[in-house]
Design a protein that fits this description.
Blueprint: H1 13-23, H2 29-45, H3 49-56, H4 103-130, H5 133-150, H6 153-165, H7 170-186, H8 190-205, H9 210-226, H10 230-240, H11 252-266, H12 269-277, H13 280-286, H14 290-297, H15 299-302, H16 336-341, H17 348-359, H18 362-377, H19 387-403, E1 408-410, H20 411-418, H21 422-434, E2 440-443, E3 448-451, H22 456-489
Helix pairs in contact: 1-2, 3-4, 4-5, 5-6, 6-7, 7-8, 7-9, 8-9, 9-10, 10-11, 13-14, 17-18, 18-19, 20-21
Length: 490
């Protein structure tokens, strides 16, 4: 499987989510207070002086609205930022909670940073005098991890690059690039992330081990998710479910959410069933009663009838009303530290979205979609920016799925199926029809929707005729050219 991953501890991306929560208007006051406490504790415990200044400085901080020296600046000040607080909420932000600045605290942890940095410099100098290249690289790696831990983006990047240039081991190079990717994700630098993901992909393809290839799938999938390439992200994220080990990137619960959402909006119905609805990893979390038990015991993977002797009472079991997070990668494994970091998540809205979309219960589908927007899309820093687009695309998917089964359907019955008014359905469908996303027309006078499904056979016939005409024209030109050459020879 290869050596254990290096440089995987910092930066802590959970802190980036906490920072986003502080500026997210959709977050509850309780959740913002909890995130503020986590952030303050992390800054104090890990001596994160650069990050503290980046966030809370009276004149330069992204989150400070009161603190020392800020009395002349209104609490509602907004300005363009590209920092970590802009997880996905746009180019401007308004501070929703005060992040106080303490000059005394900043000087204290900055002094501790300087002291710790001196030890790394001394260790590196000693290694250069008395040890070999391995020890020197180890000392440089500690310095790079130090800058990543305290939240100094530029110094962390330059330090990691210095280690990368002197490293000959491919696995270590991949680990360094993945660490740089996480720095880009932490500070929401999409260009940096894209560049480094491509760089990591090239390194892995040159001979990376299985574990790092597997970890890169999750990194690629998450990056594509942030750039709204859900169709490309879905297969990578879904493939990562059964072998996920990149806990430095996100929790398993978050991976399940990202995978299911990306698959729901981008996969065709057949693939949606096989890769999302029927996938054991998804059933183990989103399933109810017998389905969930079968997935957890491996019966789904083993095939029909497997383990029947152990599941005689499964049919009489009470369905679970609220599915909870289950990390399949930790079942039977001694990963207590991972389990402690795993935050319980109520997957009920997500389970309802998948189930209602697949069975065609469109009224429940719209209700579940609203709940998913409130519980997941509006609370996650990677999903927030695309929440409006996602909801629109899922509505389109529901409309397309219903209309493809009918030649003509009444506006009244379709509005009743989706639980919306006729006027809303008319306006919503009109947008998609105008954009050529739904091949149908609305006859409001007669109150019907008529689909205009393309005739594949006629299209194929037309294509053959066009291609045949083009071929005949080319042959005629070729024949004329041959005859001319023959007459010239005569």
């Amino acid at each position: 499987m290869g050596s254990d991953p290096q440089f995987a501890k910092y930066p802590n991306l959970a802190l980036a989510q906490d920072i986003f929560t502080l500026t997210n208007p959709s977050s509850s006051s309780t959740l913002r207070q909890t995130s503020l406490k986590k952030l303050q504790d992390a800054i104090s415990d890990h001596k994160m002086a650069p990050l503290y200044r980046h966030l809370a400085h009276p004149t330069e901080g992204l989150l400070n609205s009161s603190g020392e020296g800020s009395a002349s600046r209104p609490a509602t000040t907004s300005r363009r930022t590209n920092g970590v607080s802009q997880g996905s909420s746009g180019s401007t932000k308004s501070t929703l909670i005060d992040f106080p600045w303490s000059e005394q605290l900043y000087e204290k942890i900055k002094m501790e940073n300087d002291t710790e940095l001196e030890t790394f410099v001394k260790e590196e100098a000693d290694a250069a005098e008395t040890a070999g290249d391995t020890e020197i690289q180890a000392a440089k790696g500690k310095r790079a991890e130090f800058w990543a831990r305290v939240g100094d983006k530029e110094k962390a990047l330059s330090s990691y690059e210095a280690v990368f240039e002197k490293t000959g081991v491919l696995g270590t190079k991949i680990d360094i690039v993945l660490a740089i990717v996480r720095i880009g994700l932490f500070f929401n630098d999409k260009m940096l992330v894209k560049k480094q993901v491509d760089r990591a992909k090239a390194l892995v393809e040159s001979g990376g081990d299985w574990d790092r290839r597997n970890r890169l799938k999750a990194y690629q999938g998450l990056h594509l998710l942030t750039t709204r390439s859900y169709n490309l992200a879905a297969p990578l994220l879904l493939d990562s479910l059964s072998t996920f080990t990149s806990y430095e990137l996100c929790s398993y619960s978050s991976l399940v959410v990202y995978s299911v959402l990306a698959g729901s909006v981008s996969l065709k119905r057949v693939d949606f069933k096989s890769k999302v609805v029927d996938t054991p990893e998804v059933k183990a979390i989103l399933g109810d009663g017998e389905d969930k038990l079968a997935a957890l015991t491996g019966t789904v993977s083993a095939g029909p009838g497997a383990g029947d002797e152990d599941m005689k009472d499964a049919s009489s079991s009470t369905p679970t009303p609220a599915p909870t997070a289950v990390n399949l990668t930790t079942l039977g494994a001694s990963t207590d530290n991972v389990a402690e970091l795993e935050t319980p998540v109520d997957f009920t809205p997500l389970a309802g979205l998948v189930r209602s979309l697949y069975v065609g219960n469109y009224q429940a589908f719209f209700l579940a979609l609203a709940a998913v927007e409130e519980s997941f899309l509006s609370q996650d820093r990677y999903l927030y920016e695309h929440r409006v687009w996602f909801v629109r695309e899922m509505r389109l998917r529901g409309y397309q799925q219903l209309l493809q089964s009918y030649r003509i359907v009444s506006l009244k019955s379709m509005a009743a199926d989706f639980g919306v008014s006729i006027d809303f359905l008319d306006r919503d469908l009109a947008k998609f029809i105008a954009a050529d996303r739904i091949p149908c027309t609305i006859d409001r006078v007669n109150g019907i929707i008529e689909t205009n499904r393309p005739d594949d056979k006629n299209k194929q016939y037309t294509d053959v005729v066009k291609q045949g005409d083009a071929l005949i024209t080319k042959l005629q030109k070729y024949g004329q050219a041959v005859r001319l050459r023959g007459s010239e020879r005569g």
